Amino acid sequence: MYFIPIFVKETGGSYFEIGLVGTVRSAPYAVLPFTLAFLAKKLDLLKIYVIGLVLGFASLVLLPLTSNLYQIIGLMVISGIGMAFLWPPAEAMVAYIAGKDLSKKIAMYSLSWASGFFVGPYIGGVIAGYSLELLFIISGLTVILGLPPLILMEDGRGEVRVERGGWSKLAFTLVVPYSLLLGIMISIYPVYAKSLGFNEELIGLLFTSFGLLRLVGFYLVNYVRRKRAVLTTSYLGMLAFSILISVLYDAMSHLLLFSILGLLLGLFFPISLEVVVKRGGSAIGSVGVFEGLFGTGFIMGPMLGGLLASYEERLPYIAMGLITLAPIFTLTFKKEIA
Question: How far is CA 101 from CA 105, 263, 281, in A?
Fold first, then answer.
């Protein structure tokens, strides 16, 4: 997914159109997770997950056949629906099983998917150096490899008790700025990096370093005691990343910044999800709220980033730095978070 913005750019897309592609891909993710509790009542969570795998596969393998921006947008809508049917059900199943040991189980689950985010970008960068089209086909085939193991799973989990999750201002303040930053990083930054002279392999290496340190963060979260301090520190790190990425132009500086941010977000994600679920009171419903808010940020991030980058390539990151001030202020005065 880190190389889709470059693909759009190479098909003649502007920064605005690159942001638009990122936004339409994220749009289903801003709506469908809020309906997770309803969908879980109508369909088994595992069935929803399988649909996500199939849609993810189709959207990737068909991407090389596109000839214009509208076809890319159509496939990105399918991709967004696939993500919305994939991530929230997976998290909801883990959260439902975890019970009181939520942050530890979420950290273990996160280590699993983050391992793919660690090895994937660099391999993707190497393949993209030869052909973006080949990269998308291989990625699609990799996604569908997740299907056969599910056949071996027993569908005997029993009745899943589904409740609506609580929406709160704290959840919005915690999740949306974080997802805004990730949305800009994934949808806008690769093209910014190309303008700085970074090649596809180097861009893949940046996101690989991010993924590696995020893995470390997921492991270390088991030892966290002061969660509010970690959340605040994570947002201070996001603020520093946003400003420094706009004024430092050499590859080593970006590599260091991506690594530090990866470590901080590895700590941030499980703890923020735990806070939202515990305040919401329902594992499945609150996961839906968390991921829906995440999708909201992913819609606004690419569009905001694309618009600002159309005027000045550094503006998205400066704006992102200003936005992170809101959660820093909130966390400073939210004494009820341990």
Answer: 6, 22, 14
| pLDDT tens-digit readout, 61-94 | 999 999 889 999 999 999 999 988 888 888 877 8
> How far lies 74's CA from each of 20, 24, 47, 66, 302, in Å?
12, 9, 24, 10, 17
Q: Within a 13 Å sphere around the CA of 153, how many CA atoms are in the beta-carbon half?
A: 13
- The CB density around residue 328, as the number of other CB atoms within 10 Å, is 18
Separation of alpha carbons 325 and 236, rounded Å: 8
Q: How far is CA 284 from CA 150, 161, 237, 296, in A?
A: 20, 9, 30, 18
Place of tokens 């996160």: 110
4-146+164-333 CATH pick, 3.10.180.10, 3.40.50.700, 3.30.70.2190, 1.20.1250.20? 1.20.1250.20
Distance CA(305)–CA(282), nearest Å, equals 34
Q: What is the pTM of this model?
A: 0.76
Q: How many CB atoms lie within 10 A of CB 98?
A: 18
Of 168, 178, 123, nearest in space to 276 by CA: 168
Rounded to a whole number of angstroms, the CA Rg of the chain reads 19
The strand ranges marked E within the chain are none
Which two structure tokens, joined as six digits, stand for 155? 């569908």
What the block records as the tokens of 61 is 């393998």
- Please tell me the distance from the alpha carbon of residue 230 to that of residue 225, in angstroms, as a whole number: 9
Give pLDDT tens digits for 34-70. 777 677 777 778 888 889 999 999 999 999 999 889 9
* Cβ neighbours of 147 (radius 10 Å): 13
Q: d(Cα 61, Cα 144) in Å, to the nearest integer?
A: 11
Q: What own/partner pairs with CB < 8 Å and gap ≥ 24 does 71-78 have?
A: 72/7, 72/8, 72/11, 72/21, 73/20, 73/21, 73/24, 76/4, 76/21, 76/22, 76/24, 76/25, 77/24, 77/25, 77/27, 77/28
- Domain residue ranges of the chain, discontinuous segments joined by +: 4-146+164-333
Secondary structure letter of residue 147 according to DSSP:
S
